[in-house]
Specification:
The structure holds two protein chains of two kinds. Chain A is α+β, with helices and mostly antiparallel strands. Chain A has helices at about 5-10, 30-55, 55-85, 125-130, 155-170; strands at about 20-25, 90, 95-100, 105-110, 115-120, 130-140, 145-155. Chain A has a four-stranded antiparallel sheet, with no helix packed on it. In chain A, strands 5-6-7 form a three-stranded antiparallel sheet. The longest helix of chain A has 29 residues, at about 55-85. The model of chain A is unreliable at about 1-5 (pLDDT under 50). The two termini of chain B are about 35 Å apart. The chains are: A alpha+beta, B alpha+beta.
């Protein structure tokens, strides 16, 4: 059958674009901010430490340029990750799980529930403080086809986890 | 050894001790290789270190070998397997006892392998693989061939069928050797391989060598040969060209030889045997392997050929299954197939596949822009390197590079296409090679729509389709079409209640 012949039928199919994706919990932005700030301060701190260790003139003269360069990169990185936060969205349909993310490379991944091998809900120390958790969905595919939805409200993650588990067990 | 029925726990063939012993010795030597050398040399040089004499060394070596032998025997004694209704059971371990149970339905594949030693003592090893992680691989390292074949057959047959089929196995299923590679075709296969990579590698190596040996080469007899042909004052010029040509020819020959030898060793006596439902591949010179392909386990098919190979009618069929062992994947290649044989096999492995079923669709011309960009980056690096190493004269390399880059972009776009039919996705790609990727829609594990920030204004997106063995990409198509495909594939996967394995 020709693919273009399918067009009419295809348009009647459930459309992934029509799905209203739900943004992840706002408080996850705080975790992102805390994590990246910790990382930046570590990098900048190490750089500053080098200033006291390396006594070569070439390094000492250009130190502040290097430092500023790294700082600017950190700030740009931070802005991008804050903007990208808005792109992190998810949805659970009757037959699949959808997760969208990414500012520069935006991707929308869908995993049919019938292909899920198992689900896992994990919570880091920081996430527990904000009442969040990460939902990990494993398929039999390559590592690339596994989903990891970060920053879900704990109760919701639990709900989705239960729902998928029930579906997966019911099917097999 | 008489053929066992596998219902009681049995050991492998007694020759297994030799195989286990040899294997352990090799791993031991590998681990302590450097220590050995260092120790051995110093002992030989000074006759003794402390109180250690060569005789004592010998004793120590024999002692270690004895210990390994005892371990091998113990391992052999403690290695028992049997089959129950639905499962394969294996008990191993000298001190820590392990009991492994694999349900027959979860077995991905069973190979029969024979390495050099096993060929000599005439046993085979049976390897059982599941889709799980590496630990779940099981190898029985020494069985005689009939037992191994029977075991394999029993592992593949579901319990319900076994009772009826066991009787029938011997006679009704007359396997037919569908394809047997000839030496000539293997030779052609080796010759027509994509030598570009090995060629580049060897040529850069040769260039470095040439620079080192320049003075030496100039004094070679070549100069004298040339004196007769060219004029004397142009001798050096010709000299340079001739040596260059010789080097290039040498490199080409070496890379050809390399590919041919490699092809021969891996694919020696390649044989495809057709069974009722499965296909069996036998091949290998030093490492003989025999493996079965079951259609339901296959995730992707990849067909590779190139211009030269097409001329000779050579196609390679790679069968991708869900498994962890990447090294093993290479064994699932069937080389040097004729077009009709290829089509036959593809049809056997995935039923109802029809190449003409639907129209080819092309990616957007944006594809070429990306390829050009890739080449541009490559060109900048190339120019930078040649400028840095050889100086300004090396810029002539662009005379060769630019047409090649243009050809690259042209062919990459020309060969890129995708086809989506009722049950299959077919994706074509390649530059020098022509690669065709086929997958069955119901084996899809996940689908991803990808769009970079630069593609958004142009309404272009890519689709990544993952199966349990491989991800393939439909690159740079219009967003609206991508969404249609996305919805269609999802609908297909979710509406059919078909298992992926």
């Amino acid at each position: 059958m020709n693919f273009t012949n399918l067009q009419i039928q295809v348009e009647d199919l459930p459309n992934v674009e029509g799905v209203t994706l739900k943004p992840i919990a706002k408080s996850y932005l705080k975790i992102i901010a805390l994590n990246s700030l910790a990382l930046y301060s570590l990098i900048l701190g190490a750089l500053y430490g080098l200033k006291h260790l390396v006594k070569e003139d070439g390094f000492q003269d250009n130190f502040w340029y290097v430092f500023l360069g790294v700082l600017v990169i950190c700030i740009i990185n931070f802005i991008i990750s804050v903007l990208a936060f808005k792109k992190r969205k998810y949805a659970v349909r009757g037959h699949d799980v959808i997760y969208a993310k990414g500012l520069i490379v935006h991707s929308v991944t869908t995993v049919p529930i019938s292909r899920i091998q198992h689900v896992e809900e994990s919570r880091s120390w920081l996430a527990r403080h904000f009442g969040l958790s990460t939902l990990k969905i494993f398929t039999a595919g390559e590592a690339g086809s596994d989903l990891s939805i970060k920053g879900l409200p704990h109760i919701e993650a639990k709900g989705i986890n239960d729902f998928i588990s029930a579906e997966v067990n019911g099917n097999s | 050894m008489e053929i066992a029925d596998f219902s009681q726990p049995i050991r492998q063939s007694i020759k297994g001790i030799i195989v286990i012993f040899a294997f352990n010795v090799i791993t031991f030597v590998k681990k302590f290789f450097i220590l050995f050398i260092a120790f051995g040399v110093s002992v030989l040089r000074s006759k003794s270190i402390g109180n250690v004499t060569p005789t004592m060394m010998l004793m120590a070596v024999i002692g270690i070998l004895l210990i390994i032998l005892i371990i091998a025997i113990l391992k052999y004694l403690n290695f028992k397997f049997h089959l129950s209704e639905d499962d394969f059971h294996l008990a191993t371990g000298i001190i820590n006892k392990d009991n492994t149970i694999i349900p027959k339905s979860k077995i991905q594949n069973v190979y029969i392998k024979q390495n050099f030693l096993q060929q000599i003592i005439n046993v085979v090893s049976v390897k059982i693989e599941t889709a799980g992680d590496k630990k779940s691989e099981i190898e029985i390292s020494a069985l005689d061939r009939p037992t191994a074949l029977l075991l394999k057959q029993k592992l593949f047959h579901k319990t319900s069928e076994v009772n009826e089929n066991v009787e029938a196995i011997g006679r009704s299923e007359e396997p037919e050797v569908f394809f047997k590679v000839t030496t000539k075709r293997l030779l052609l296969e080796g010759l027509s391989q994509n030598h570009f990579k090995s060629f580049l590698l060897i040529i850069s190596f040769a260039f470095g060598l040439y620079n080192e040996l320049k003075d030496f080469l100039e004094e070679l007899e070549l100069e004298q040969h040339l004196e007769g042909i060219g004029e004397f004052n142009e001798a050096t010029f010709y000299n340079l060209i001739i040596t260059n040509v010789i080097i290039v020819i040498g490199v080409v020959l070496i890379s050809f030889l390399f590919s041919i030898v490699k092809t021969f060793i891996i694919n020696f006596n390649l044989e495809v045997v057709e069974h009722q439902k499965t296909i069996e591949i036998n091949k290998g010179l030093f490492n003989k392997v025999s493996l079965s392909l079951t259609p339901s386990r296959i995730q992707n098919l990849v067909i590779t050929t190139n211009r030269v190979k097409q001329y000779f009618g050579l196609h390679t069929l790679a069968v991708k299954q869900a498994m962890v062992n990447v090294k093993q994947q290479k064994n699932f290649n069937i080389v040097a197939l004729e077009k009709e044989q290829l089509n036959h096999l593809v049809n056997k492995l995935i039923s109802n596949y029809n190449e003409e079923e639907s129209e080819k669709a092309k990616p957007r011309p944006y594809f070429m822009r990306i390829s050009t960009l890739e080449m541009l980056v490559f060109g900048v690096v190339l120019n930078g390197l040649s400028l840095g190493i050889f100086g300004i004269e090396m810029l002539w390399i662009n005379a060769a590079f630019l047409p090649l880059a243009a050809l690259y972009v042209y062919f990459a776009y020309k060969k890129a296409y995708y086809k989506i039919s009722e049950n299959f996705v077919t994706i074509g790609s390649g530059v020098i090679d022509t690669t065709t990727n086929i997958l069955e829609i119901h084996k899809i594990q996940s689908i991803k729509l990808k769009q970079t920030i630069f593609q958004r204004p142009r309404d272009i997106a890519s689709i990544v389709i993952s199966t349990a063995s491989k991800s393939v990409t439909i690159p740079y198509i219009s967003k609206s079409e991508a969404i249609l495909i996305y919805n269609f594939l999802l609908f297909k996967v979710e509406s059919q209640d078909r298992d992926w394995m």
